[in-house]
Automatic annotation (TrEMBL):
Signal peptide feature range: none
NodB homology domain: residues covered: 160-342
Name under which the protein is recorded: Polysaccharide deacetylase family protein
Naturally occurring in which organism (per UniProt): Streptomyces rugosispiralis
SUPFAM superfamilies named among the record's database cross-references: Glycoside hydrolase/deacetylase
Biased composition, class Low complexity, residue ranges: 96-109
Annotated spans, Disordered: 58-109
PROSITE patterns, A to Z: NODB (PS51677)
Length: 342
């Protein structure tokens, strides 16, 4: 329902700019939540947009709130859209997956059979099993609740695979693009606008390798305890940025610091994000640490970050990834693509 609402109230001009503001979106969502007819709400939305000159206007459209400060004007020309705004399905361009690329098939190694030597591995990264024909049931932290996003920390599988996720976007090391391509490394990027700024092209290059993109909010606040409108602004605002910058409608969300409450799950669902992805293992400068137990388990989701030498005790992003992959291999696992399983 919420994703359909986004598609109907968000009108795209010939320039591809998204019409309307986060504040209008909040108002429309709240109107539906309080029981007003969806038809009446959409009629009101169309009337308001028309009254603001949104329909048939030849100039850029005005945004308000934080998104207005973070998005460039439509007159600057948006990036070409290659994604789809169809309904959430866990597959297709909506999550940021292009039709090709070494990691798009979930296989490894990538373009160069001997690339592992270049990147400091003792042996090639083993290809994961073929993606399951039927995705396993979600290993939700509690039974799914209507109108709330589902929270997962791991994948329910016996395959000897783990899933790599990279957060924020602080570091933009060109060598990591080469490493990801050479190794055919699958991962999911959870992007935060504030630290990326005007450098979405870097993450677009990683996306072209088949690595999907998720939402990590506009400014990385601690969401738990904040009111619904604030959380909706942070989450839907980043959805709009990702649409404008990369032509995407992500379906996966990661809350900053892994903290969330019921309002977070409501807001995520209302922004078209059906799954909240947490983690069990995290890559830190000194190696993997675990939220519970010790060692990797089948289906573990691993958190790492886009980091550079100033935050990795002098190591580079590619050094960190090599250390992580060596540890994954030492424990008898390989890396699969998360979206193949959820």
């Amino acid at each position: 329902m919420a994703h359909s609402l986004r598609s109907q109230w968000s009108i795209r001009t010939p320039l591809g700019a998204r019409v309307g503001s986060i504040e209008l979106k909040i108002a429309f969502v709240m109107m539906i939540k309080t029981g007003l007819s969806r038809c009446l709400v959409l009629t009101a939305a169309a009337t308001m947009l028309a009254g603001c000159g949104a329909l048939g206007s030849s100039g850029p459209h005005t945004r308000t709130g934080k998104a207005a400060d973070l998005l460039p004007s439509a007159s600057a020309g948006p990036h070409t859209e290659s994604g789809s705004s169809g309904s959430p399905s866990g597959s297709g361009h909506g999550d940021g997956a292009p039709p090709s690329g070494p990691a798009a098939t979930g296989s490894a190694p990538g373009a160069f059979p001997d690339a592992y030597r270049r990147w400091g591995l003792d042996r090639p990264l083993a290809p994961p099993p073929r993606p399951p024909k039927v995705k396993p049931p979600l290993a939700a932290l509690w039974p799914p609740v209507p109108e709330l996003a589902t929270v997962i920390r791991r994948v329910d599988t016996t395959d000897r695979v783990v899933f790599l996720t990279l957060d924020d976007g602080i570091e933009k090391d060109p060598a990591f693009v080469d490493q990801a391509r050479d190794l055919g490394l699958p991962f999911t990027q959870f992007l935060e606008d504030e630290v990326i700024g005007d450098h979405y092209d870097y993450f677009g290059r990683l996306r072209e390798l088949g690595n999907r993109i998720g939402n990590h909010t506009l400014t990385h606040p601690k969401l738990a305890g904040q009111d619904y409108e604030f959380q909706l602004h942070e989450i839907c605002g980043q959805q709009d940025v990702l649409h404008y910058r990369l032509g995407l409608e992500p379906h996966l969300f990661r809350p900053p610091y892994g903290d969330y409450d019921r309002n977070t799950l409501r807001a995520a669902a209302d922004c078209g994000l059906g799954k909240v992805v947490l983690w069990r293992a995290e890559m830190e400068p000194d190696g993997l640490v675990y939220r519970s137990g010790s060692g990797l388990r089948p289906g573990d989701i691993i958190l790492a970050h886009f980091r550079g030498p100033d935050m990795l005790k002098g190591a580079t992003m590619t050094d960190m990834i090599t250390s992580l992959l060596r540890e994954i291999q030492a424990q008898g696992f390989t890396v699969a693509r998360l979206e193949d399983y959820i």
